[in-house]
Amino acid sequence: MLKKIIISSVFLFFLFSCKTYNVLEEEHPSRDMKDFSYDPKYEYKIRKDDKITLSVWGQDDLSVGSVYGIYNSNEVYGKWLLVDINGNIEIPRLGTTNVIGKTIPELKDEIKTKLKRWLVNPIVDLKVLNKEIAVMGEVKNPAVIQVDKDQNTLLELVSKAGGFEMYANLKSVKILRQEGENVRVTNIDLTEMKDIPNQNIVLHPGDYVIVPSKKSKDFDKRVSTIIPFTTVTSAAAVLINLL
Fold this sequence. Notes:
- By secondary structure, this protein is of the alpha+beta class.
- The protein is built from 6 helices and 12 strands.
- The protein has 3 domains: about 1-40 and about 130-210, Outer membrane lipoprotein wza domain like (Outer membrane lipoprotein wza fold like, Roll); about 50-130, wza like domain (wza like fold); about 215-243, no CATH class.
- The strands form 4 sheets. A 5-stranded mixed β-sheet has the order 7-6-12-9-10, sandwiched between helices.
- A hairpin with a 3-residue loop joins strand 3 and strand 4.
């Protein structure tokens, strides 16, 4: 059931993007790795539909999903501020605040400055609850994985998905990244062990990892279905035709 949900989500992701790719069949949709190169200055920017918790030390009436309170309220209990279609959230006392495209440090500084009208030295903490990376295909546990960091390596995410399955095509691991109305795609060859430091690229929240299967998987499935119902001679003929 989980695999069906994930696959459906990816299909819709591609369907409504301005550019779509047949990423499972194209061997090298993009060789331009510089679009996915490590950027030490990268910071996640708040997006529409993000779920944000706001914590103000000692001020429960100003907090939503506070990590400071005695009774923590978080995503499990439905306590968050949702970024609406206009990029706004409603902050207690401060009212409508535009947050779209801002980093967490930027928004924290803005809120602290505004709260100084009432508080001497406000301590503010913010968290985006739905920072996620999807890992699909030939891994043991395909899933949408929640991440707290902005910088996450490919192999780190694959390990969280349980590692590769036997039929994983490690020569053609695909990484997809939404940038505005476009989707950037790159191909990673993890069989090049000498180049693993470069191939183990850094992923950002919102990225998709697709691990396609080897063509032999379909072959083996067909063989396992056909052979029990054939003679040795006919099985040999079938194998030749399939190969």
